[in-house]
Amino acid sequence: MSPTSPPTQGLPKVVVEYPMPGAQQTHEVVSPAPGMLLVSQQTDGAIVKVVLDPKTGRPVSAVASVVGSPWSGLHGLSHAVARPGLVWATVQFESAVLLIDPVADSPTAPPQVLQRIPIPLPAAGPHVVIENDGMLWVSCKDSHHVVRLNPENDADYSIYAASPRPIFVAVHPTSGDVYASLDQSSRIFRLQQDTGETSETAIDPAWGNTPVGLIAGPDGNVWFVLLGNSSGGTGAFGRINADGSITPFHLQGMLGQHAALIHLAFGEVPKNGPAPLYLLGSTMGSMMALDAVNLVTFDPDYSRVATLQTVATATPMCMTHRVLPIGGDVFVTAMACALSQITPSGTAGNQNADYYSDFGVGIPAARVDYPAV
Question: Is 90 exceeded by the pLDDT of residue 236?
Answer without folding.
Answer: yes
